[in-house]
Amino acid sequence: MNNSLVDLKNLSPAELEQFLAGLGKERFRAGQLMRWIYLRGVSDFTAMTDLAKAFRAELEERAVVSTFSIEAEEISSDGTRKFLFRLADGQSVETVLIPMDEGRATLCVSTQVGCAMQCAFCLTGTFGLTRNLTAAEIVNQVCAVRTRFPVDNIVLMGMGEPLHNLDNVVRALEIFYSASGFDYSPRKVTLSTSGLVPEMLELGQRIRVNLAVSLNATTDAVRNELMPINRRYPLAELMRACREYPLLPRQRITFEYILIRGVNDSLEDAKRLVKLLHGVKCKVNLIPFNEHAGSAFRAPDGATIEAFQRHLLDRDIVAIRRASKGQDISAACGQLKGRLEELKLLT
Ligand code: SAH
Ligand code: SF4
Q1: Whole-number Å distance between alpha carbons of 205 and 225
Q2: H or E stretch covering 311
Q3: Which of 112, 161, 214 to mutate to test the pocket of ligand 1 (most atoms within 8 A of CB)?
Q4: pLDDT tens digits, one per residue of 204-213
Q5: Per-residue confidence (pLDDT) for residue 333, from 0 to 100
């Protein structure tokens, strides 16, 4: 691919308008192009029949519309599907489609190849960061799946730390929300972060999105060990940022809490969690640690999980127990990419 060509999927709607203005075109052409690209899934300019021939030729000279093809697909016994996409530089990325209630489906999208955050429980984190995904590579995960399956919700919870790639993530969100793009309501899109405080606040200023925070501990001592980012942004700062995060009416922050046996699953932890969450409009997702070969951590037994959840519920905190779906195809939380790298190491 010629490097001087602009991939239009790397441009936010406003950037696309600017690009077209540079070619002397009217603003509304941006919407027209986006509808071809995102709503109709067309990447060949010559097929965009309501654009003047000369304009199409001009686009052909200066721009491309990249696409992903599905390189591999695995289906779990619970209906979860994992897709593998090959990137132009040979790297790969995984995207997971998770069936929800009432025939709905949530797409779990990656934002980086690997992750720099090194969380102790996460297989993705153990391999470090290879690179950020471009906006086009984030958006193309959705494009490729949507042509085959309806996607009701999008969660940025795959590989990577989305706030470590903020500009491209915001571009992708703008395309998801644009009426000429995918036209998702911000209520349908969730971004999960390990807690990069300045970027959380910047995100809140720049764009609307549901926020999920991977909390996973109730003391700095434990969180420092589980999530090294906590040494930079300790719990008090993180919780202050959560309190400041702008929410729509009826919107809440989701706190993800992986329960790890003997590490963060005690009743004392549950009590501290109640205190930490005081004054935050929130709900808690309790996720029993998803055991994998790369880790000595274990999930708590059912009674411990139950007691933890009960303590929160009794104090009027919405606490939902989440099972990791797609375990048999390594598509569950924290397993993305890890298994692939594991296989690479073995072969
Ligand atoms: N980097 C972001 C988003 C991707 S991680 C973040 O950390 O929030 C996706 C989710 O998987 C996070 O909530 C993380 O806590 C969870 N996760 C990682 N490893 C896991 C494991 N072994 N078991 C259960 N959940 C895990
Ligand atoms: Fe990165 Fe999230 Fe895994 Fe931590 S849990 S290493 S932030 S992907």
Answers
A1: 30
A2: helix 302-314
A3: 214
A4: 999 999 999 9
A5: 66
Going along the chain from its start, the domains and CATH numbers come out as 6-64 (1.10.150.530), 70-346 (3.20.20.70)
242 in active site: no
Selecting among 115, 199, 333, 342, the annotated active-site residue is: 333
What is the whole-number distance in angstroms between the Cα of residue 14 and the centre of ligand 1?
Answer: 32
* Tokens describing residue 190: 């969730």
Closest ligand 2 atom, CA of 160? 8
Using CA positions, which residue lies closest to atom 6 of ligand 2? 125
Burial 194-228 (b: 16+ CB within 10 A, else e): bbbbebbeebbeebbbbbbbbbbbbbeebbbebbb
Looking up tokens 């989305």, which residue turns up? 162
Please give the Cα distance from 159 to 106 (Å, whole number): 15
Q: Which ligand is nearest to the CA of 124?
A: 2
94 is known as an active-site residue: yes
Phi, psi for residue 237 in degrees, rounded to 5: -70, -40
- Strands 189-193 and 112-114, how do they pair? unpaired
pLDDT at 202 over 70: yes
> For 269-317, how does the pLDDT look when each residue is reduced to its tens digit (9 = 90+)?
999 999 999 999 999 999 999 988 878 999 999 999 999 999 999 999 9
Length of the chain: 347
- What is the 114 CA–ligand 2 centroid distance (Å)? 9
Q: Is the CB of 192 under 6 A from ligand 2?
A: no
